[in-house]
Queue: 2 jobs
Job 1
Amino acid sequence: MADRGSQGRRGSSGSSGGSSGSAGGRGPAGGRGSSGGHGSSGGRGASGGQGSPGGQGSAGGRGGPGGRGRGPRPPKPTRDEARNAAYDLLRAVDERDAYANLLMPRLLRERGLAGRDAALATELAYGTLRGLGTYDSIIAMCGDREPDPAVLDALRLGAHQLLKMRVPPHAAVGTTVDLVRLRIGTGASRFANAVLRKIASRSLEEWIPIVAPSEDTDPVGHLAVAYSHPRWIVSAFRDALGGDPKETSELLAADNARPMVTLVVRPGRSSMEELEDSGAEPGRYSPYAAYLPEGDPGRVLAVAETRAAVQDEASQLVALALTRVPVEGPDELWLDMCAGPGGKAGLLDAIATHGDLAGLDARDPAAFPGGARLLAADAQYHRARLVWQTTRQAAVVTADGTEPPWRPGVFDRVMLDAPCTGLGALRRRPEARWRRDPASVAELGALQRRLLAAALDALRPGGVVAYVTCSPHLAETQVVVADALKRRNDAEQLDARAFLPEVEGLGDGPHAQFWPHRHGTDAMFIALLRKTATPS
Ligand SMILES: C[S@@+](CC[C@H](N)C(=O)[O-])C[C@H]1O[C@@H](n2cnc3c(N)ncnc32)[C@H](O)[C@@H]1O
């Protein structure tokens, strides 16, 4: 791209060696004290019925499954568009490795789902994907056989409604059984009915001690099942949090919650006032962050015109921290080495051009005044194109940062937002936790090391590099930085927390680590390294 001047089957979350207890028992309505509907889910004519509690037999005392035997035929199943959309998304994620956050908007559009129905479909699909580690353990205990993948996805959907959403049990069971009858068949719907009735016999809090390993003998396995994360990720998070089990559980819980939509004001291109007029509220930390409590961000004019964008607050702050480090001498040439799709490049480009406008007040005379130029690179052409669309003044190139087309030793500031496992953004990508495996950490580690070496090579003496990951995994963060510093004698690490004074709880330094449960942001990591003028 020319100079402008010219995105199988999932593993389970851990062992489900349960301790005790049978799954059957009370009827679907028993003991959950669930009340009220959710969206359009509550009031429909559910076919599950509340007869035969806990039984494996008929679907709600309607005279026998599938219309055989005596008595009235079961009512025709009803097609529920929101649940069907959610189910189709689950199948696409399972069968085709689809990305939920890319496919969902398309499905909603194609099916004409909006408002509450769209919100319901999204919550059903995303919530099910997040929780399926827990749900699979419970489903395994409630069925007399392993379900087919297509049936399993429907059971997961039903389990989510029964255990996490405030859908009345008869509606959750009935709508799911209808879905299975319509999409798979009558035999499968009988099986689904039996399994769901058992699931409905207990609350989530009652199921966890039954299906999860003991907290005392296997704390990691317990958290993995209780909070629906793969065991290796729980281990990695616990290590990054210094072994603290309580904080680890808080982090895992935060990963299971829907994140807030955060917008970024691109300085010189939009303003906080403009975003406030669109219903957003100023953010907690970043002077450029605005929270959008509701509504489609795509309908905010400044976002539609790329003068503002959707961007996590920590993602803004790591870019900002890089611009706040004083550098001696000229400060004119900046590099974003792994820029696609352009979130940080969009902010860096605006600050390079117009200055750190929010910092340019009496409180911060050292704020960057503007007048620099950004070169943004990405190894993938289509991602570089997105950077091109996002930035205004930056030169954008498709280039491999490890074999760069630029001369060494010329940049004053380098942003290295390294390719990583993305374990810090699990809130946003509901299926991502089931797709990564520990091998990817090792593979990415080698690339991260090469890129960091190249970033330091690209700097002129006195210049500064931000090594950033959207992962708190120690092997991707502190270990990569420590290795780089061991290998070379022309770089020193700065205390990144000093350049983020508005944020508490970033850790013991010298790096800074953001956390969803502490800051409400993604778990972004930043280390700042300065190229020393002389070998140190
Ligand atoms: C974490 S993403 C960057 C996110 C981006 N900075 C943002 O804020 O929107 C990492 C990017 O690195 C790119 N990448 C991977 N290997 C690369 C390499 N060797 N050189 C340059 N870019 C690379 C990927 O294509 C991906 O777009």
Job 2
Amino acid sequence: MSHTFQVDLRGLVDLLSHHLYSSPKVYLRELLQNGVDAITARRALDPGAPAAVRLLPGDGGLRVEDTGIGLTEAEVHDLLATIGRSSKRDGLESARADFLGQFGIGLLACFVVAEEIRVVSRSARDPQAPPVEWRARGDGSYTVRTLPEEARTEPGTTVHLAARPGAGEWLEAGRVAELARHFGSLLRYDVRVGGERITERPVWDRPHTGPDARRAAFAEHCAETFGFAPLDAIELDVPLAGVRGVAYVLPEAVSPAQRGAHRVHLKGMLLTEHADGLLPEWAFFVRCVLDTDGLHPTASREGLYEDETLAAVREALGERIRGWLSELAAGSPELLGRFLSVHHLGVKSLARHDPEMLRAMLPWLPFETTDGRVSLEEFARRHPVVHYTRTTEEFHQVAAIAAAQGIGVVNGGYTYDAELVELLPGARPGTAVAELDTDTVTAHLDPVDGGEELALAPFLAAARTALDRLDCDVALRAYQPAAVPALYLDDRDARHERSRAAAEAASDELWAGVLGSLRESRPRARLVLNHLNPLVRRMARVDDARLAGTAVEALYGQALLMSRRPLRPADSALLNRTFLELLDWAVAPAPQTPPTDRPSGDAR
Ligand SMILES: Nc1ncnc2c1ncn2[C@@H]1O[C@H](COP(=O)(O)OP(=O)(O)OP(=O)(O)O)[C@@H](O)[C@H]1O
């Protein structure tokens, strides 16, 4: 024997209100939607039929009247009283696409706020059919009866809601007007709360006296909708999915991980304020408001259904925003400059995957370089080879020295920057790009005269002994700026080892010898003492081998600090020890005083 499922309406309403809908306020959206769909259905039969929805709050309840298609008694039983039944799924796909509803559960949302729903309706399809009344209660019971002719003379439907205990606030006049405006301001029919019209033309459809007035109208709309003054407004129009709208460019940077909170209307009805997946991920610098005929809602009607249409719209909107950027690059450098100063990270992430974009944006993208913050194009014009470092530490380690030797360096340590610089030759033919290694820097430093270096041999030997256990070699060169006493170059990995060999081949005999000596051993860090630095020169004349050793260790520590590398525990200990030792030397009594008078507790 077969049975029919029984539905516990109270349980179903609880399920909807707690798990499908985000708030009781959606009841109003469902009512508006039913009114609008009913008018659409009637107008398909009679294009000249009136099109109005009236919301009339009062007496602890709400009345919603529409001039739509109405229902006969049989339809009331079939459609209103059968959960999951919808008239909007019948017929052709194209006709279905005209409606907002489709699931046949919308009316249930009213039970979240109402104890009783009373519907009085008269069919436009069957003018002979009398008005009909349907009364339904939250416990699942309902009654249907026909009414006398004069109970409703015109086609259409009126829905009466009587508030549930505790839910009265949702039906109050102020709240109803606020919700109607929130959900329905862009609906295409005349919707009023009391006598007040709440529907308006979308800002992008309004006529304006000129471009300036249009811009001002968009700025005002953005301030009202999102609460910020946009850098610019990008008009959106994708006929394929009936999308019209506007993307507002944020005046402040946002994290690329932060997804956009876009407002999407479906045939005028607000679907969501947090649409996800509407734009490509890189377009995180805009917030959109748009209305669409062609995108599909999820059953909760609070999000977009991820399908091919959404994918196509996403691509088309991305294309439009990309076009806006190209237009700026071509014609509005001042605005582009302002835009990039805020959103360069976003544009850089976009340009990485998009050579066309890279070419368009290249003259404008700012990078940190040894010439200051300049665009890559400007930098490439000034320097025959665009050198870059892969990390910010490397940049800080060599920037000042490299700049003084005339080597231009881009800091590739920031997000995407190294990758972008590597793409430069593709976007700007003829540009030479090379990763900066420590040997390129050393190869640019002048060697010290052979005789002078020989004279300093004892000092250099003491220095090498002092730093040997730190896996660091010592070299002497003459370089600018003279104020820098020593340069710490980390030569640890194989990449450096390869370029070392090249530098060795190109350098003079003495330096080639130093470099060559490194070849056999594992690559080591190197402290390059600056022979132009007065302190280094004075140190080289110190007779006391121990003091000379401590001084070199201190220089090593200082150069390490300048390179902004993280200090190993051994390095911190060395800094601490050398500081105290030098302090001790500095405050030591004059040489004629006997050593026993020295302060006690010294670290030596
Ligand atoms: N104001 C109205 N005028 C005429 N018919 C209506 C009205 N309200 C509801 N109906 C009929 O009742 C059916 C069920 O309505 P309900 O709101 O539950 O679902 P729906 O609008 O079809 O779909 P959804 O669950 O997606 O909103 C509708 O398909 C429609 O035929």
